[in-house]
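Table S4 entry, Amidase.
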Amino acid sequence: QDLNSLKVSRDRLLTDLHYTCQWGTGKRWGENTTDTGMRRLALSDTDKQARDWFVETTKAAGCTVTIDAMGNIFAVRPGKRSGPPTFAGSHLDTQPSGGRYDGILGVHAAVEMLHVLNENHIETEFPIGVVNWTNEEGARFPISMVSSGVWAGQIPLATAHDLVEVTPPRTETLSAALARIGYNGPTEVSHTAIPMAAHFELHIEQGPILESWNRKIGIVTAVQAYRWFTLDVRGRDAHTGTTPLSARADALLTAAKMILHSHRIATKLGCVASTGILTLEPGSTNTIPGHVRFSLDIRARNDGILDKAEEALRRDFAVIAAGEDVGGLNDGATPGKACQVEWRTDSVSSEIDFHPDCIKCVTESAEGVFGAQAKELTAEMVSGAGHDSVYTSKVCPTSMIFIPCKNGVSHNPEEYSTPEDCALGAQVLLGAVLRYDRL
Ligand code: HGY
Ligand code: MN
Ligand code: MN
Ligand code: MN
């Protein structure tokens, strides 16, 4: 069968994508806005609805479905010969106020691949698999790509199971959530229990590169390194009216200086640093905050830059906590009393390079789609975002395919990719998986 004759259905892909996006369309930041975003947090009831759809649909497409102890869902379509399947997959969970494409597009494109194989009565050499990875975002349980991390043997199962949600009500553990929605599968979470010949992931780029380069497909060759930390800054609660500036151990002021300084270090080292979560106590207008907790996400093209960034931040945060000045942060302000700062490392992900065989399958698939225009419509690139493919690449040949997203915006309700680009991505994914199957 000529691979280029197999065509995905754009309408079916987008209809199914919009259908499953009914689960988790929520009000952004509570009820008092008209702004809606996707809020399908990992292992929530809406995630369960999307998962149930995924299980039903892949079973109806002739797959056997296995659920492991992290709630990862593996759907496998048999091939002529038995052996480890070539997988395509991504994730169904979203950010607290996320977009309609991040993760779920890759799952749908993989399901669309099954439909195309079935309607063309294709028997692949080996089995073909489709996977949904639990809690890729790390937005609810604070280790991102945690389930592919356990499967790849990089994160202990107990560590993952014991994670407590960082979103309200901040009470449920990951393992309790799995049990509550009935996705605490019996299968061991490991690449020996569920072997993969290869893993391909279609994903929106989530940045501005493809759009600025006027390219339709990103052939992803690598993923940048990143590290997530949680910092606790402890000062002393005090009265805002009676306490002189010099007598304050103001945890929020100290944390604010640290966050500003992390931006200066990132600028200097050519990496990125972000704080997305910040909580403080006691939270009263007339009490100086005695405790602040904030997240720190640092990313760079390689571990060497991150080592430098982490070293500088640990050194300078200690100085800032001691109430001393770093690079003029205190200019004109009365220095206060010392605070304590405590670091917790939540996750560390090194830079990774994808497998040349998979990159070649994606490149050839794109050539099959674009013909002579392939060179001007595709580009090799490095992923700024982390993905489950980071972990699968540690145990099996892996690579990714990107499509552009409008204005490079993601993790935002405005996230958008055109139906044409979604279908192009799904077409290249189909061709890449089938080329790998025949390798
Ligand atoms: O954090 C990331 O890069 C991904 O969106 N989980
Ligand atoms: Mn994603
Ligand atoms: Mn994401
Ligand atoms: Mn991902």
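The pocket of manganese (II) ion (ligand 4) is lined by residues 90-91, 103, 136, 203, 387-388 (CB under 6 Å).
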